[in-house]
Amino acid sequence: MISIERVLEILIQDDNFREIVGADDQLFYSWPEAIHFEQLSYDSRKTDDKTLFFAKGLNFKKEFLTGLSVPFYLSEVDYAVDIPAILVNDVKQAMSLIAQEFYGRPQDKLKILALTGTKGKTTSAYFAKSILDEMNGGKTALLSTAQTTLDGKTYVKSELTTPESLDLLEMMATALKKGMTHLVMEVSSQAYKTKRVYGLSFDVGVFLNISPDHIGPIEHPTFEDYFYCKRQLIKHSHYFVANSEMQGFEVVKQEIEARQIPHAFYGEKSDNQIINSSALDFKLSGLVSGDFSIRLLGRFNQENALATALATKALGANDEQIHSGLAKALVPGRMETLTASSGAKLYIDYAHNGVSLENLVEVVESHHSGRLVLILGSTGNKGESRRKDFAQVIESHPRLEVVLTQDDSNYEDPKAIADEIASQISRPVAYEGNRELAIRDAIALVSGADDAVIIAGKGEDKFQLVNGVREPYLGDVAAAEKYL
Ligand SMILES: CC(=O)N[C@H]1[C@@H](OP(=O)(O)OP(=O)(O)OC[C@H]2O[C@@H](n3ccc(=O)[nH]c3=O)[C@H](O)[C@@H]2O)O[C@H](CO)[C@@H](O)[C@@H]1O[C@H](C)C(=O)N[C@@H](C)C(=O)N[C@H](CCC(=O)O)C(=O)O
Ligand SMILES: Nc1ncnc2c1ncn2[C@@H]1O[C@H](COP(=O)(O)OP(=O)(O)OP(=O)(O)O)[C@@H](O)[C@H]1O
Questions:
Q1: Do the domains spanning 106-328 and 336-482 agree at the CATH topology level?
Q2: Confidence band, pLDDT 50/70/90 cuts, at residue 460
Q3: pLDDT mean across residues, the chain
Q4: Region 286-293: what's the mean pLDDT?
Q5: Do residues 11 and 90 lie in contact, with contact meaning Cβ atoms separated by under 8 Å?
Q6: For 208-261, how does the pLDDT look when each residue is reduced to its tens digit (9 = 90+)?
Q7: In the chain, is it the N or the C terminus that has fewer CB atoms within a 10 Å radius of its CB?
Q8: Which ligand sits nearest to residue 356's alpha carbon?
Protein backbone atom coordinates (compact mmCIF):
# COMPACT_ATOMS: atom_id res chain seq x y z
CA MET A 1 0.00 0.00 0.00
CA ILE A 2 1.15 3.55 -0.67
CA SER A 3 -0.57 6.87 0.03
CA ILE A 4 -0.99 9.71 -2.45
CA GLU A 5 0.96 11.87 0.01
CA ARG A 6 3.95 9.53 -0.15
CA VAL A 7 3.69 9.26 -3.94
CA LEU A 8 3.93 13.05 -4.21
CA GLU A 9 6.84 13.19 -1.73
CA ILE A 10 8.77 10.67 -3.83
CA LEU A 11 8.10 12.60 -7.03
CA ILE A 12 9.04 15.95 -5.49
CA GLN A 13 12.23 14.54 -4.00
CA ASP A 14 13.17 13.30 -7.46
CA ASP A 15 12.30 16.68 -9.00
CA ASN A 16 9.84 14.88 -11.25
CA PHE A 17 6.48 16.29 -10.07
CA ARG A 18 4.59 18.91 -12.11
CA GLU A 19 1.07 19.08 -10.64
CA ILE A 20 -2.18 17.20 -10.29
CA VAL A 21 -4.88 18.09 -12.78
CA GLY A 22 -8.25 17.44 -11.15
CA ALA A 23 -11.22 16.03 -13.05
CA ASP A 24 -12.58 19.60 -13.46
CA ASP A 25 -9.17 20.87 -14.69
CA GLN A 26 -8.33 22.48 -11.37
CA LEU A 27 -4.58 22.26 -10.55
CA PHE A 28 -3.21 20.97 -7.25
CA TYR A 29 0.28 20.75 -5.75
CA SER A 30 -0.99 18.55 -2.91
CA TRP A 31 -4.15 16.46 -2.71
CA PRO A 32 -6.75 17.40 -0.07
CA GLU A 33 -7.99 13.85 0.69
CA ALA A 34 -6.26 10.77 2.09
CA ILE A 35 -6.03 8.11 -0.62
CA HIS A 36 -4.26 4.77 -0.43
CA PHE A 37 -3.31 2.72 -3.46
CA GLU A 38 -3.37 -1.05 -3.05
CA GLN A 39 -2.12 -1.86 -6.54
CA LEU A 40 0.22 -0.37 -9.13
CA SER A 41 -0.29 -1.08 -12.83
CA TYR A 42 0.84 0.10 -16.25
CA ASP A 43 -1.84 -1.92 -18.02
CA SER A 44 -5.35 -0.49 -18.04
CA ARG A 45 -6.73 -4.02 -18.30
CA LYS A 46 -5.31 -4.79 -14.86
CA THR A 47 -6.73 -1.97 -12.74
CA ASP A 48 -9.43 -1.39 -10.11
CA ASP A 49 -10.56 1.47 -7.87
CA LYS A 50 -7.51 1.09 -5.64
CA THR A 51 -4.94 1.17 -8.45
CA LEU A 52 -2.43 3.85 -9.26
CA PHE A 53 -2.27 3.57 -13.05
CA PHE A 54 0.85 4.57 -14.99
CA ALA A 55 -0.04 5.76 -18.49
CA LYS A 56 3.19 5.21 -20.40
CA GLY A 57 4.73 3.90 -23.56
CA LEU A 58 5.14 4.49 -27.25
CA ASN A 59 1.86 2.78 -28.06
CA PHE A 60 -0.23 4.23 -25.25
CA LYS A 61 -3.64 5.50 -26.38
CA LYS A 62 -6.05 7.88 -24.67
CA GLU A 63 -8.86 5.36 -25.06
CA PHE A 64 -7.10 2.99 -22.63
CA LEU A 65 -8.31 5.39 -19.92
CA THR A 66 -11.96 5.13 -20.92
CA GLY A 67 -14.20 3.65 -18.25
CA LEU A 68 -11.43 3.06 -15.71
CA SER A 69 -12.30 3.20 -12.02
CA VAL A 70 -8.79 4.20 -10.94
CA PRO A 71 -8.62 7.19 -8.58
CA PHE A 72 -5.63 8.66 -10.47
CA TYR A 73 -3.45 8.03 -13.47
CA LEU A 74 0.17 9.13 -13.49
CA SER A 75 1.44 10.44 -16.81
CA GLU A 76 3.63 12.83 -18.75
CA VAL A 77 0.54 13.88 -20.73
CA ASP A 78 -2.75 15.34 -19.56
CA TYR A 79 -5.22 13.23 -21.52
CA ALA A 80 -8.10 15.50 -20.40
CA VAL A 81 -10.35 12.69 -19.18
CA ASP A 82 -12.49 12.71 -16.05
CA ILE A 83 -9.83 10.99 -13.92
CA PRO A 84 -7.39 13.17 -11.95
CA ALA A 85 -3.91 13.09 -13.51
CA ILE A 86 -0.66 13.19 -11.57
CA LEU A 87 1.60 14.87 -14.11
CA VAL A 88 5.32 14.18 -14.14
CA ASN A 89 8.29 14.88 -16.36
CA ASP A 90 9.24 11.21 -16.65
CA VAL A 91 6.70 8.48 -16.03
CA LYS A 92 9.15 5.56 -16.12
CA GLN A 93 11.37 7.24 -13.55
CA ALA A 94 8.32 7.76 -11.33
CA MET A 95 7.19 4.18 -11.82
CA SER A 96 10.50 2.75 -10.65
CA LEU A 97 10.77 4.87 -7.49
CA ILE A 98 7.13 4.40 -6.51
CA ALA A 99 7.38 0.65 -7.08
CA GLN A 100 10.48 0.46 -4.87
CA GLU A 101 8.55 2.05 -2.01
CA PHE A 102 5.32 0.10 -2.68
CA TYR A 103 7.10 -3.25 -2.57
CA GLY A 104 9.05 -2.41 0.62
CA ARG A 105 12.47 -1.82 -0.94
CA PRO A 106 13.25 -5.53 -1.52
CA GLN A 107 16.46 -4.50 -3.27
CA ASP A 108 17.96 -3.56 0.11
CA LYS A 109 17.31 -7.03 1.51
CA LEU A 110 18.65 -9.09 -1.39
CA LYS A 111 22.29 -9.30 -2.43
CA ILE A 112 22.14 -8.46 -6.11
CA LEU A 113 24.60 -9.33 -8.85
CA ALA A 114 23.88 -7.45 -12.09
CA LEU A 115 25.40 -8.36 -15.45
CA THR A 116 25.66 -6.30 -18.58
CA GLY A 117 27.44 -6.84 -21.89
CA THR A 118 26.57 -7.50 -25.50
CA LYS A 119 27.29 -11.20 -25.17
CA GLY A 120 27.50 -13.68 -22.33
CA LYS A 121 25.00 -12.16 -19.88
CA THR A 122 22.73 -15.19 -19.76
CA THR A 123 25.57 -17.71 -19.65
CA SER A 124 27.28 -15.77 -16.88
CA ALA A 125 23.99 -15.38 -15.00
CA TYR A 126 23.55 -19.17 -14.94
CA PHE A 127 27.18 -19.62 -13.87
CA ALA A 128 26.66 -17.09 -11.08
CA LYS A 129 23.44 -18.71 -9.88
CA SER A 130 25.12 -22.08 -9.78
CA ILE A 131 28.02 -20.74 -7.68
CA LEU A 132 25.82 -18.72 -5.33
CA ASP A 133 23.55 -21.73 -4.86
CA GLU A 134 26.61 -23.64 -3.63
CA MET A 135 27.16 -20.86 -1.10
CA ASN A 136 23.59 -20.20 0.08
CA GLY A 137 22.01 -23.63 -0.33
CA GLY A 138 19.90 -22.88 -3.41
CA LYS A 139 18.54 -19.47 -2.42
CA THR A 140 19.40 -17.59 -5.61
CA ALA A 141 16.69 -15.99 -7.75
CA LEU A 142 17.50 -15.40 -11.41
CA LEU A 143 16.21 -12.93 -13.99
CA SER A 144 17.69 -13.75 -17.37
CA THR A 145 16.76 -13.40 -21.03
CA ALA A 146 16.08 -17.12 -21.16
CA GLN A 147 14.26 -17.80 -17.95
CA THR A 148 13.21 -16.39 -14.62
CA THR A 149 13.12 -18.14 -11.26
CA LEU A 150 11.93 -16.45 -8.10
CA ASP A 151 12.14 -19.47 -5.81
CA GLY A 152 15.47 -20.74 -7.08
CA LYS A 153 14.03 -23.84 -8.75
CA THR A 154 10.81 -23.18 -10.72
CA TYR A 155 11.63 -21.58 -14.06
CA VAL A 156 9.36 -19.58 -16.37
CA LYS A 157 10.16 -18.09 -19.77
CA SER A 158 11.11 -14.41 -19.53
CA GLU A 159 9.44 -11.66 -21.55
CA LEU A 160 12.26 -9.12 -21.48
CA THR A 161 15.91 -9.37 -20.47
CA THR A 162 15.31 -6.80 -17.75
CA PRO A 163 11.65 -6.51 -16.72
CA GLU A 164 9.71 -3.26 -16.55
CA SER A 165 10.41 -1.64 -13.13
CA LEU A 166 6.98 -2.48 -11.68
CA ASP A 167 7.42 -6.13 -12.56
CA LEU A 168 11.03 -6.15 -11.45
CA LEU A 169 10.23 -4.81 -7.99
CA GLU A 170 7.30 -7.20 -7.61
CA MET A 171 9.58 -10.08 -8.61
CA MET A 172 12.20 -9.01 -6.09
CA ALA A 173 9.57 -8.88 -3.35
CA THR A 174 8.32 -12.35 -4.32
CA ALA A 175 11.86 -13.73 -4.31
CA LEU A 176 12.35 -12.40 -0.79
CA LYS A 177 9.06 -13.91 0.36
CA LYS A 178 10.18 -17.23 -1.05
CA GLY A 179 13.29 -17.10 1.11
CA MET A 180 15.84 -16.07 -1.52
CA THR A 181 18.92 -14.28 -0.25
CA HIS A 182 20.57 -13.50 -3.60
CA LEU A 183 19.40 -12.32 -6.99
CA VAL A 184 21.34 -12.60 -10.23
CA MET A 185 19.96 -10.42 -13.00
CA GLU A 186 20.83 -9.22 -16.46
CA VAL A 187 20.68 -5.48 -16.96
CA SER A 188 20.27 -4.56 -20.60
CA SER A 189 21.22 -1.20 -22.06
CA GLN A 190 17.50 -0.78 -22.85
CA ALA A 191 16.79 -1.13 -19.14
CA TYR A 192 18.86 1.98 -18.50
CA LYS A 193 17.56 3.78 -21.56
CA THR A 194 13.96 3.19 -20.53
CA LYS A 195 14.58 3.64 -16.77
CA ARG A 196 13.54 0.13 -15.78
CA VAL A 197 16.24 0.12 -13.08
CA TYR A 198 16.06 3.81 -12.22
CA GLY A 199 17.17 4.45 -8.62
CA LEU A 200 18.40 0.89 -8.04
CA SER A 201 21.93 0.01 -7.04
CA PHE A 202 23.60 -3.38 -7.13
CA ASP A 203 26.04 -5.10 -4.80
CA VAL A 204 28.17 -6.24 -7.72
CA GLY A 205 28.04 -5.11 -11.34
CA VAL A 206 29.76 -6.91 -14.21
CA PHE A 207 30.55 -5.53 -17.68
CA LEU A 208 31.42 -8.47 -19.94
CA ASN A 209 32.03 -6.90 -23.35
CA ILE A 210 30.56 -4.62 -25.96
CA SER A 211 30.23 -4.79 -29.72
CA PRO A 212 27.86 -3.03 -32.11
CA ASP A 213 24.35 -4.44 -31.64
CA HIS A 214 20.88 -3.24 -30.61
CA ILE A 215 21.15 -0.16 -32.78
CA GLY A 216 17.84 0.57 -34.46
CA PRO A 217 14.60 2.54 -34.31
CA ILE A 218 13.28 1.18 -30.96
CA GLU A 219 16.67 0.48 -29.40
CA HIS A 220 19.71 2.82 -29.52
CA PRO A 221 20.27 5.56 -32.11
CA THR A 222 24.06 5.10 -32.07
CA PHE A 223 26.80 2.84 -30.69
CA GLU A 224 27.87 5.70 -28.41
CA ASP A 225 24.38 5.73 -26.87
CA TYR A 226 24.45 1.94 -26.46
CA PHE A 227 27.86 2.09 -24.72
CA TYR A 228 26.83 5.04 -22.53
CA CYS A 229 23.65 3.24 -21.41
CA LYS A 230 25.60 0.10 -20.54
CA ARG A 231 28.12 2.16 -18.57
CA GLN A 232 25.32 3.37 -16.29
CA LEU A 233 25.79 0.11 -14.40
CA ILE A 234 29.18 1.33 -13.17
CA LYS A 235 27.90 4.16 -11.03
CA HIS A 236 25.08 2.03 -9.67
CA SER A 237 27.33 -0.79 -8.42
CA HIS A 238 29.15 -1.05 -5.10
CA TYR A 239 31.78 -3.33 -6.64
CA PHE A 240 32.55 -3.68 -10.33
CA VAL A 241 34.06 -6.41 -12.50
CA ALA A 242 35.10 -5.47 -16.04
CA ASN A 243 36.76 -7.17 -18.98
CA SER A 244 40.09 -5.48 -19.70
CA GLU A 245 40.04 -6.82 -23.27
CA MET A 246 36.78 -5.24 -24.33
CA GLN A 247 36.32 -2.42 -26.79
CA GLY A 248 36.30 0.89 -24.90
CA PHE A 249 37.94 -0.57 -21.79
CA GLU A 250 40.00 2.61 -21.22
CA VAL A 251 36.80 4.64 -20.77
CA VAL A 252 35.31 2.02 -18.47
CA LYS A 253 38.50 1.98 -16.41
CA GLN A 254 38.64 5.77 -16.21
CA GLU A 255 35.03 5.94 -15.09
CA ILE A 256 35.48 3.24 -12.43
CA GLU A 257 38.61 4.93 -11.12
CA ALA A 258 37.12 8.43 -11.21
CA ARG A 259 34.12 7.18 -9.24
CA GLN A 260 36.45 5.26 -6.87
CA ILE A 261 34.44 2.06 -7.16
CA PRO A 262 36.16 -1.04 -5.74
CA HIS A 263 36.77 -3.32 -8.69
CA ALA A 264 38.46 -6.29 -10.31
CA PHE A 265 39.50 -6.32 -13.95
CA TYR A 266 40.02 -9.54 -15.87
CA GLY A 267 41.66 -10.53 -19.12
CA GLU A 268 45.05 -9.95 -20.64
CA LYS A 269 45.49 -6.36 -19.47
CA SER A 270 44.86 -7.28 -15.84
CA ASP A 271 45.93 -9.44 -12.90
CA ASN A 272 43.05 -11.90 -13.30
CA GLN A 273 43.70 -14.20 -16.20
CA ILE A 274 43.06 -17.52 -17.84
CA ILE A 275 46.55 -18.97 -17.97
CA ASN A 276 45.87 -22.39 -19.44
CA SER A 277 42.93 -23.32 -21.57
CA SER A 278 41.72 -26.51 -23.23
CA ALA A 279 38.26 -27.45 -24.49
CA LEU A 280 36.46 -27.53 -21.15
CA ASP A 281 39.21 -27.08 -18.56
CA PHE A 282 41.18 -23.98 -17.67
CA LYS A 283 43.47 -22.55 -15.03
CA LEU A 284 42.96 -19.14 -13.43
CA SER A 285 45.46 -16.86 -11.76
CA GLY A 286 44.73 -13.80 -9.66
CA LEU A 287 42.01 -13.19 -7.07
CA VAL A 288 40.49 -16.55 -7.97
CA SER A 289 43.10 -19.15 -8.81
CA GLY A 290 43.40 -22.86 -9.56
CA ASP A 291 41.99 -25.39 -11.98
CA PHE A 292 38.38 -25.12 -13.13
CA SER A 293 36.10 -26.76 -15.64
CA ILE A 294 32.79 -25.88 -17.29
CA ARG A 295 30.38 -27.83 -19.48
CA LEU A 296 30.31 -25.33 -22.35
CA LEU A 297 32.87 -25.20 -25.14
CA GLY A 298 34.61 -22.00 -26.17
CA ARG A 299 37.21 -19.68 -24.73
CA PHE A 300 34.55 -16.95 -24.39
CA ASN A 301 32.66 -19.15 -21.95
CA GLN A 302 35.83 -19.46 -19.88
CA GLU A 303 35.94 -15.65 -19.86
CA ASN A 304 32.33 -15.60 -18.69
CA ALA A 305 33.32 -18.06 -15.97
CA LEU A 306 36.23 -15.88 -14.85
CA ALA A 307 34.03 -12.77 -14.69
CA THR A 308 31.47 -14.69 -12.68
CA ALA A 309 34.09 -16.15 -10.37
CA LEU A 310 35.33 -12.65 -9.50
CA ALA A 311 31.81 -11.31 -9.03
CA THR A 312 30.64 -14.15 -6.80
CA LYS A 313 33.88 -14.00 -4.82
CA ALA A 314 33.03 -10.36 -4.05
CA LEU A 315 29.71 -11.64 -2.69
CA GLY A 316 31.48 -14.10 -0.39
CA ALA A 317 31.82 -17.31 -2.43
CA ASN A 318 35.02 -19.27 -1.78
CA ASP A 319 37.18 -20.96 -4.42
CA GLU A 320 35.68 -24.38 -3.67
CA GLN A 321 32.11 -23.10 -4.18
CA ILE A 322 33.21 -21.35 -7.35
CA HIS A 323 34.80 -24.57 -8.56
CA SER A 324 31.79 -26.79 -7.93
CA GLY A 325 29.28 -24.15 -9.10
CA LEU A 326 31.03 -23.72 -12.42
CA ALA A 327 31.47 -27.46 -12.90
CA LYS A 328 27.72 -28.05 -12.48
CA ALA A 329 26.29 -25.11 -14.44
CA LEU A 330 24.25 -25.78 -17.57
CA VAL A 331 22.76 -22.99 -19.66
CA PRO A 332 19.63 -23.64 -21.73
CA GLY A 333 20.16 -23.13 -25.45
CA ARG A 334 23.83 -22.23 -25.11
CA MET A 335 26.21 -24.71 -26.71
CA GLU A 336 23.85 -27.65 -26.34
CA THR A 337 25.22 -30.64 -28.23
CA LEU A 338 23.47 -33.62 -29.82
CA THR A 339 24.90 -36.54 -31.78
CA ALA A 340 23.22 -37.72 -34.98
CA SER A 341 22.91 -41.45 -35.71
CA SER A 342 25.67 -40.92 -38.29
CA GLY A 343 28.03 -39.78 -35.51
CA ALA A 344 27.99 -36.14 -36.65
CA LYS A 345 27.67 -33.53 -33.90
CA LEU A 346 24.98 -30.85 -33.72
CA TYR A 347 25.65 -27.61 -31.87
CA ILE A 348 22.60 -25.60 -30.84
CA ASP A 349 23.48 -22.13 -29.72
CA TYR A 350 21.76 -18.83 -29.14
CA ALA A 351 24.43 -16.95 -31.16
CA HIS A 352 22.42 -14.31 -32.98
CA ASN A 353 24.82 -11.51 -33.74
CA GLY A 354 28.04 -11.33 -35.72
CA VAL A 355 30.46 -11.56 -32.80
CA SER A 356 28.83 -14.55 -31.15
CA LEU A 357 28.39 -16.31 -34.50
CA GLU A 358 32.09 -15.79 -35.22
CA ASN A 359 33.03 -17.24 -31.83
CA LEU A 360 30.69 -20.18 -32.25
CA VAL A 361 31.91 -21.05 -35.74
CA GLU A 362 35.56 -20.79 -34.67
CA VAL A 363 35.03 -23.21 -31.77
CA VAL A 364 33.14 -25.77 -33.83
CA GLU A 365 35.60 -25.50 -36.73
CA SER A 366 38.49 -26.21 -34.40
CA HIS A 367 36.88 -29.51 -33.33
CA HIS A 368 35.61 -30.76 -36.72
CA SER A 369 37.68 -31.25 -39.86
CA GLY A 370 34.82 -32.54 -42.07
CA ARG A 371 31.66 -30.93 -43.45
CA LEU A 372 30.30 -27.99 -41.51
CA VAL A 373 26.70 -26.96 -42.09
CA LEU A 374 25.33 -23.74 -40.62
CA ILE A 375 21.62 -23.00 -40.13
CA LEU A 376 20.93 -19.36 -39.59
CA GLY A 377 18.29 -16.66 -39.91
CA SER A 378 18.13 -13.04 -38.86
CA THR A 379 15.47 -11.10 -37.01
CA GLY A 380 13.01 -8.77 -38.71
CA ASN A 381 12.36 -5.21 -37.57
CA LYS A 382 15.31 -5.19 -35.21
CA GLY A 383 19.06 -5.75 -35.27
CA GLU A 384 19.10 -5.08 -39.04
CA SER A 385 22.88 -4.57 -38.98
CA ARG A 386 23.34 -8.24 -38.04
CA ARG A 387 22.61 -9.31 -41.62
CA LYS A 388 25.80 -7.74 -42.96
CA ASP A 389 27.76 -9.09 -39.96
CA PHE A 390 26.48 -12.64 -40.55
CA ALA A 391 27.46 -12.43 -44.21
CA GLN A 392 30.96 -11.34 -43.20
CA VAL A 393 31.34 -14.29 -40.81
CA ILE A 394 30.17 -16.68 -43.53
CA GLU A 395 32.57 -15.09 -46.01
CA SER A 396 35.50 -15.53 -43.66
CA HIS A 397 34.72 -19.22 -43.06
CA PRO A 398 34.68 -20.77 -46.55
CA ARG A 399 34.19 -24.28 -45.15
CA LEU A 400 30.67 -23.44 -44.01
CA GLU A 401 27.77 -24.76 -46.06
CA VAL A 402 24.88 -22.48 -45.27
CA VAL A 403 21.13 -23.04 -45.07
CA LEU A 404 19.38 -19.72 -44.44
CA THR A 405 16.04 -19.87 -42.69
CA GLN A 406 13.58 -17.97 -40.54
CA ASP A 407 14.39 -16.42 -37.15
CA ASP A 408 11.72 -14.09 -35.72
CA SER A 409 11.16 -12.33 -39.04
CA ASN A 410 8.24 -10.45 -37.47
CA TYR A 411 6.66 -8.05 -40.00
CA GLU A 412 9.41 -8.62 -42.61
CA ASP A 413 9.50 -11.31 -45.27
CA PRO A 414 11.95 -14.03 -44.10
CA LYS A 415 13.01 -14.71 -47.70
CA ALA A 416 13.83 -11.02 -48.20
CA ILE A 417 15.95 -11.06 -45.03
CA ALA A 418 17.72 -14.19 -46.28
CA ASP A 419 18.25 -12.59 -49.70
CA GLU A 420 19.82 -9.56 -48.04
CA ILE A 421 22.30 -11.84 -46.22
CA ALA A 422 22.92 -13.97 -49.34
CA SER A 423 23.56 -10.92 -51.52
CA GLN A 424 26.66 -10.19 -49.44
CA ILE A 425 28.09 -13.73 -49.70
CA SER A 426 30.16 -14.68 -52.73
CA ARG A 427 29.23 -18.39 -52.82
CA PRO A 428 25.81 -20.02 -53.19
CA VAL A 429 23.80 -20.56 -50.02
CA ALA A 430 20.58 -22.57 -49.62
CA TYR A 431 17.26 -21.26 -48.30
CA GLU A 432 14.53 -23.20 -46.50
CA GLY A 433 11.98 -20.92 -44.85
CA ASN A 434 10.63 -23.61 -42.53
CA ARG A 435 13.20 -23.78 -39.72
CA GLU A 436 12.41 -27.36 -38.78
CA LEU A 437 12.83 -28.50 -42.40
CA ALA A 438 16.07 -26.54 -42.68
CA ILE A 439 17.35 -28.50 -39.68
CA ARG A 440 16.21 -31.75 -41.28
CA ASP A 441 17.99 -30.88 -44.55
CA ALA A 442 21.20 -29.96 -42.74
CA ILE A 443 21.28 -33.20 -40.76
CA ALA A 444 20.88 -35.12 -44.03
CA LEU A 445 24.07 -33.47 -45.32
CA VAL A 446 26.42 -34.69 -42.57
CA SER A 447 27.68 -38.21 -42.18
CA GLY A 448 30.39 -38.83 -39.58
CA ALA A 449 32.09 -37.67 -36.39
CA ASP A 450 34.25 -35.19 -38.27
CA ASP A 451 31.13 -33.41 -39.54
CA ALA A 452 28.99 -30.93 -37.64
CA VAL A 453 25.79 -28.92 -37.93
CA ILE A 454 25.61 -25.54 -36.24
CA ILE A 455 22.07 -24.38 -35.50
CA ALA A 456 22.45 -20.75 -34.54
CA GLY A 457 20.16 -18.08 -33.24
CA LYS A 458 17.15 -19.37 -31.36
CA GLY A 459 18.67 -21.50 -28.60
CA GLU A 460 15.80 -22.64 -26.37
CA ASP A 461 13.16 -20.33 -27.89
CA LYS A 462 9.94 -22.20 -28.49
CA PHE A 463 8.33 -19.61 -30.74
CA GLN A 464 8.75 -17.76 -34.02
CA LEU A 465 7.85 -14.07 -33.95
CA VAL A 466 5.69 -13.53 -37.04
CA ASN A 467 3.67 -10.36 -37.66
CA GLY A 468 3.96 -9.32 -34.02
CA VAL A 469 2.74 -12.69 -32.70
CA ARG A 470 4.81 -15.43 -31.06
CA GLU A 471 3.76 -18.48 -33.07
CA PRO A 472 4.55 -21.83 -31.39
CA TYR A 473 7.74 -23.49 -32.63
CA LEU A 474 9.07 -26.85 -31.51
CA GLY A 475 12.46 -25.41 -30.56
CA ASP A 476 15.80 -26.18 -32.19
CA VAL A 477 16.71 -29.03 -29.83
CA ALA A 478 13.37 -30.83 -30.21
CA ALA A 479 13.32 -30.20 -33.98
CA ALA A 480 16.83 -31.64 -34.35
CA GLU A 481 16.01 -34.65 -32.15
CA LYS A 482 13.26 -35.61 -34.64
CA TYR A 483 15.79 -36.07 -37.45
CA LEU A 484 18.83 -37.50 -35.66
C1 LIG B 1 11.44 0.26 -26.46
C2 LIG B 1 11.05 -0.50 -25.23
O3 LIG B 1 11.80 -0.66 -24.32
N4 LIG B 1 9.81 -1.00 -25.24
C5 LIG B 1 9.27 -1.72 -24.11
C6 LIG B 1 8.29 -0.84 -23.36
O7 LIG B 1 7.33 -0.38 -24.26
P8 LIG B 1 6.55 0.94 -24.00
O9 LIG B 1 6.75 1.44 -22.60
O10 LIG B 1 6.87 1.86 -25.08
O11 LIG B 1 5.07 0.41 -24.01
P12 LIG B 1 4.27 -0.14 -25.26
O13 LIG B 1 4.63 -1.57 -25.50
O14 LIG B 1 4.37 0.82 -26.36
O15 LIG B 1 2.76 -0.16 -24.72
C16 LIG B 1 2.10 0.99 -24.24
C17 LIG B 1 1.48 0.80 -22.90
O18 LIG B 1 0.06 0.65 -23.06
C19 LIG B 1 -0.41 -0.27 -22.11
N20 LIG B 1 -1.72 -0.78 -22.54
C21 LIG B 1 -1.85 -1.49 -23.69
C22 LIG B 1 -3.09 -1.95 -24.08
C23 LIG B 1 -4.22 -1.66 -23.29
O24 LIG B 1 -5.36 -2.04 -23.57
N25 LIG B 1 -4.03 -0.92 -22.16
C26 LIG B 1 -2.82 -0.48 -21.78
O27 LIG B 1 -2.72 0.18 -20.75
C28 LIG B 1 0.70 -1.30 -22.04
O29 LIG B 1 0.62 -2.03 -20.84
C30 LIG B 1 1.95 -0.41 -22.10
O31 LIG B 1 2.28 0.04 -20.81
O32 LIG B 1 7.70 -1.53 -22.29
C33 LIG B 1 7.01 -2.74 -22.68
C34 LIG B 1 6.54 -3.41 -21.39
O35 LIG B 1 5.82 -2.51 -20.63
C36 LIG B 1 7.96 -3.67 -23.41
O37 LIG B 1 7.25 -4.79 -23.87
C38 LIG B 1 8.60 -2.98 -24.58
O39 LIG B 1 9.61 -3.81 -25.10
C40 LIG B 1 9.64 -3.98 -26.52
C41 LIG B 1 8.55 -4.89 -26.98
C42 LIG B 1 11.01 -4.56 -26.90
O43 LIG B 1 11.15 -5.30 -27.83
N44 LIG B 1 12.03 -4.22 -26.20
C45 LIG B 1 13.37 -4.66 -26.52
C46 LIG B 1 14.07 -3.71 -27.45
C47 LIG B 1 14.17 -4.69 -25.20
O48 LIG B 1 13.87 -4.01 -24.24
N49 LIG B 1 15.21 -5.52 -25.17
C50 LIG B 1 16.10 -5.62 -24.06
C51 LIG B 1 17.18 -6.66 -24.36
C52 LIG B 1 18.26 -6.11 -25.20
C53 LIG B 1 19.45 -7.06 -25.13
O54 LIG B 1 19.33 -8.23 -25.54
O55 LIG B 1 20.51 -6.63 -24.67
C56 LIG B 1 15.42 -6.15 -22.81
O57 LIG B 1 15.80 -5.73 -21.68
O58 LIG B 1 14.58 -7.04 -22.94
N1 LIG C 1 31.72 -13.58 -23.64
C2 LIG C 1 31.25 -13.83 -24.85
N3 LIG C 1 31.78 -13.24 -25.93
C4 LIG C 1 31.28 -13.46 -27.16
N5 LIG C 1 30.26 -14.29 -27.43
C6 LIG C 1 29.69 -14.91 -26.39
C7 LIG C 1 30.15 -14.70 -25.06
N8 LIG C 1 29.38 -15.44 -24.23
C9 LIG C 1 28.48 -16.06 -25.01
N10 LIG C 1 28.66 -15.76 -26.31
C11 LIG C 1 27.87 -16.19 -27.47
O12 LIG C 1 26.70 -15.38 -27.50
C13 LIG C 1 25.51 -16.18 -27.45
C14 LIG C 1 24.55 -15.58 -26.47
O15 LIG C 1 25.10 -15.80 -25.19
P16 LIG C 1 24.29 -15.33 -23.91
O17 LIG C 1 22.88 -15.68 -24.09
O18 LIG C 1 25.00 -15.82 -22.72
O19 LIG C 1 24.49 -13.76 -24.04
P20 LIG C 1 23.48 -12.58 -23.76
O21 LIG C 1 24.34 -11.40 -23.44
O22 LIG C 1 22.51 -12.97 -22.71
O23 LIG C 1 22.78 -12.42 -25.16
P24 LIG C 1 21.48 -11.58 -25.61
O25 LIG C 1 21.59 -10.19 -25.07
O26 LIG C 1 21.58 -11.61 -27.06
O27 LIG C 1 20.31 -12.31 -25.04
C28 LIG C 1 25.96 -17.55 -27.01
O29 LIG C 1 25.13 -18.50 -27.54
C30 LIG C 1 27.38 -17.63 -27.48
O31 LIG C 1 27.40 -18.05 -28.81
A1: no
A2: confident
A3: 94
A4: 96
A5: no
A6: 999 877 777 778 888 999 999 999 999 999 999 999 999 999 999 999 999 999
A7: N
A8: 2
How far away, in angstroms, is 57 Cα from ligand 1 center?
7
Dist. CA 409 → ligand 1 center (Å):
18
Domain 2-102 - what CATH class? alpha beta
Q: What is the pLDDT of residue 296?
A: 86
C-beta of 42 in contact with ligand 1 (< 6 A): yes
Closest CA to 126 of 209, 202, 184, 40: 184
- Ligand found nearest the CA of 230: 1
Domain 106-328 is found in CATH 3.30.360.10:
no
Counting from 1 in the atom list of ligand 1, the atom nearest the Cα of 193 is: 3
The CATH number given to 336-482 is 3.90.190.20
What does 279-300 look like in DSSP terms, one character per residue? Answer: SSEEEEESSS-EEEE-SS-SHH
Counting ligands in written order, which one lies closest to the CA of residue 209? Answer: 2
**pLDDT the model gives residue 24:** 84
In ligand 1, which atom is closest to the CA atom of 219?
A: 46
| Total-model pTM | 0.84
pLDDT tens track for 407-419:
999 999 999 999 9
Using the mean position of ligand 2's atoms as its centre, give its distance from the Cα of residue 200 in Å: 25
Cβ–ligand 2 distance for 99 under 6 Å, the answer no
Which residues is 184 bridged to in the sheet? 113, 142
CA of 176 from ligand 1 middle (Å) equals 26
**Tell me, what's the pLDDT at 211?**
87
Residues 192-203 have pLDDT tens digits of 999 999 999 999
Sequence-ordered list of residues with C-beta below 8 angstroms from that of 158, at least 6 positions apart, any chain: 143, 144, 145, 146, 147, 148
CA distance 193 to 211: 17
